[in-house]
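anyone seen this seq b4? input:
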Amino acid sequence: MKKFTTEQQQVIDFRGRRLLVSASAGTGKTTVMIQRILSLLEGGADISQFVVVTFTNLAAAEMKARLARELSNFGTDRRMVEQLEKLDNANISTIHSFCSELLRNYFYLVDIDPDFSILDNVTVANMKNDALEEVFEEYSQANDDLFRRVRKIFTRNRQEQCFRDTVFSLYEFARGLEDFGAWYASKRNNFVEYSPDNPVVTTLLADITDTLGYVKANFADVARRAAEEGVDVCADVCRQNASRCNFATDELSQAVTNLATTTLLKLPIRNKKKPMYVDQAIEEKLRSDFDSVYKTYDELAKKYQKLFRGMSMETLWQQTVDSVAYTDKLVEIVQRFEEKYYAAKRQRGAIDFGDLEHLALKVLRNEEAAKEIGARYKYVFVDEYQDTSPIQEELVRALGGADLFMVGDVKQSIYGFRGCEPEIFLDKYNRYKSGQEGRAIKLNQNFRTNKEIFEFVNGLFCYIMTEDFGRVNYATDAMLDGPNGRTVDLPSVLVNLVCLPKEEPPEVTGMYDITDVSAPDEGLSQAAVIVSNIKNYVGTTYEVNGEMRSIDYSDIVILTRSLRGKAEAIYDALVEANIPVVANFKTDGYASKEVRDIVNLLRVVDNPYNDVYLVGICLSCFGNFTEAELGQIRLDTKGRVPFYDRLRAFRRDFPDSEITKKIDTLLNFVDKVRFFSHGATVCETVLYVLKLTDYALYVEGLPNGGLRVRKLYAFIDGVRDAAYGESVDKFLEFIDQSEDNAVEEGLGNVNAVRMMTMHASKGLEFPVVIVAATEGKFNLFPERVERNVDMGVAINYYNFDNMRVSGTMGATACGMFNKTKQREEEMRLLYVALTRAKYLLNVVGNVTEKQLTELPKQPNKAISHMDWIVSMLVSRYNPVETNGSKLTVVVNRDLPESKERATTERMVPQYTDLDKVLAQMNYAYPYTAQTGMPLKVVSSALDKEALAVLEEADVPEEQAEQVLVDDYLPEGTPQTTTKSAPHTAYKPTKKAMDEQAERNKVGTAYHKVLQYLPLDATEADVKALIERLLAEEKLEQRYADGVDAATVCAVVNDPTYKQIVASGKVYRELPFMLCAPYNKLVAGSNYTDEVMLQGVIDLLVVADNHAIVVDYKYTRHSDGVKKRYRAQLNSYRLAVEKIFGITDVDCYILSIADNKLVKM
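predicted toks r here
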């Protein structure tokens, strides 16, 4: 019979209506939860009366399996056998599965299709984009000025996607709330009404107060140490600074004023002849600590100086109030988008995961349904209650007629990015603990972890987790305790602080000594330490309950914040060291070569014109090309064409080459796979590839070949039954668009080290845990829309008069609050990672020498996990390095990889022969002319390109054509021409050039009006159009004033113009982009390479095999336009030929100022 602690037994035996259990890591909460269910079943409850909500499907399956084992232990007990038979249909599932079942039964109450489907991520993304496009179109047609301003605020670099992402992000936040509109209305006042207890004001004031408290305490500490060492000057300055920081902070405006007017003293400048203290090391330490504290105060003062910018409190607050109009409009846009998106889903008879919770809540709010559900379910169990969102909490409350049992650990709440709010758990725990509403029980006795490990964890989190930061007083409420039943001959906790060498300038031995110095690779440095530690761990024996075991690769896990960057370097280092490893990488990454090559092949099969993947396949075993051979193909083929076309061109031009044989083999192979894939699934296509090649044999021959083959077939199994595996194109679309799908490379009982994120390790345990890359910076960047459940929604202040953006009190306070919450979540994430270890824990991260000696950081100002770890070590150990059986801290300074990466390589040898030196210095690049050819040209600039060619060619004056070079010249000024009397050419003044630039913009305004004007327009139509374009901000008033409605009307009503327009299909402002040989675009050029040509045809009329191009010019020099714009119009002819296949093209210049059509 199992033995339980007093607290565990209390949980099992409790028979009240409400019970919340706070269970720390490794305290057996799942076991207790199962025993409580069994106890209730023994007491007469039926398994069909339970709703057990778990966080993942895997956890639900594991709970059912464990319950089945426990129920089978009751033998022939008839009632328990009956419960075992009902277990498969028991409601033990995730919250989404429970909601889905409710909706299947009560679909009629929420007006959805009874056979509704749940949309996949790709479809959701497409439908959201379509719905938002409709919303934007409606606002644009409504001529909504506030919408235009909001769009401008959130559009970055003229890219509307930023605005779209803002709307989508706020929508996802809104989905975590039951009624987003009502919530926003309740929080809006936080940014309108100023009061001392306003959360915006209290947050800013708390920031000042807390930082001043840290500064005062540390100045006092430095003063104490200086006095003990007899450094009276330092001690006196520190005491005065601590006193100066002791100003009142009861009211925000006064606190900010005091902060701005209070100046701290500095230490006297170091005097080497007369130092403050004989011991230089002690003086340097005191100065370093003093500077660190002084900098903290200085940064605080500058932060508020930047926020206030010399304004009064009233003026700054008014900017917060003014910005509310834009948040109102943004919320309105989100709500309108939600309506459109939901209507689109209803039309398809589908819903998404967010709808499950909202619609299920509507069902539970229905009186009739609530009564039926309450009669059916008597017991509600919620696992991982700390990861509950506001909408999920409402679901739990709606089931309040049943007995509620909630279990979780707020120290492991790590899903804030999914809308989870740990405050829900904390608030309820505090109410229950005080005897209100229910009962709270705490489980802190750890059964998983070696005692030395949780002593390290306790020491760290007692230092950083407090009531003010983390809302948990770890020292009094959350200390882990438990038996120590395991012994290992290695230190239970090993901390490796990788201190990279300083980059020293290379030694120069001669005038022409050029040296390349590569910076040390931080990822490789950590990888070297981890590889060494793993080799040391594997094979080590340890004792568990009297039984001897040895550590294997499969006992070890490496946890990182993410699986990118340094994690990839660690993975590669393990592979290189022949250490078997599997990882949970994103589907678009595929860390292992054997799977990555297959995915690249599928990409080439789908689109051979993607050079990146085609070259990758050429260099893989499928192509067997060398880099030199690919370079040869590039050199022997001309033009700027895709590499696929180069392969075919090389095959055509060099039929007898050995390289051609490889090209034939590869292209024939790709064609075969492509033909087969048209009617096959991804799984069938990959198996066909294996059948055609010896790829599986090749993989088996790689290092750790057996493991790699298993990864390959695990990938095949993974796509076999997946919806995205139906075809190659669906699979590629899935991995391109899906953001949240990770797959484990190797499945099953593989003897390999595992790599996973800290998030993915939640709920798991491993004999050996290596927590790596702990120096990675937290994501603390400000949001364009700051929002949180507690304060509301806030943005910066946008001044549309001077187009400046500045911070508001609301956005600043909201951002501070969010950064604190993010740091608290990162702290909890570190707790999760460290408490996964059973026997051995290894923490690895990069540090600097300064970090090892400076004052500990404020926990709520940390920017990485390593900041907390080093601060704790510095505060407890002096020096930091320690070597004990429980804890070993090693500072790794001497790393082979770092030295290897920092070695210098002489690129230019030191010459002693003067002639050789001069020859090197006078070297002339033989292809200088080619550097003048652009990669891209615009049609409107081609004539100036032709002018430059003529000038460079030094054409005789009598052979040079007269080419006008000025677009819009002042009346009465001479025309500038090429090669004719350059000494008399008109040189415009700056004033004339400015005037010309203004006329250019008026010409652009004429273009814009002609683009949107109906073909049979009157003067009234022209004026109405100009007003509309002004309202839509497509024209500026000063340039619109330069557009003469009568002139425009005369142009469009010209008989010749009307005849042209009526002769075929009309295209206006037709953009194009194509590739063409440079000498075909610019007459006289010797460059034959292709360049990209980009342009816009003002007016194109297409009729059968004939086309007419009209180009608008706002100029009075119609007599010279034929020569001036010849190259530009020829490029339009080329574009029409390539786009429409029409060679018979007439081109006209429409001189707007003269109302003349000039045929080219």
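Confidence is low (pLDDT under 50) at residues 508-519, 739-748, 897-912, 953-986. The first strand starts at residue 18 and ends at 23. kinda curious what u guys think
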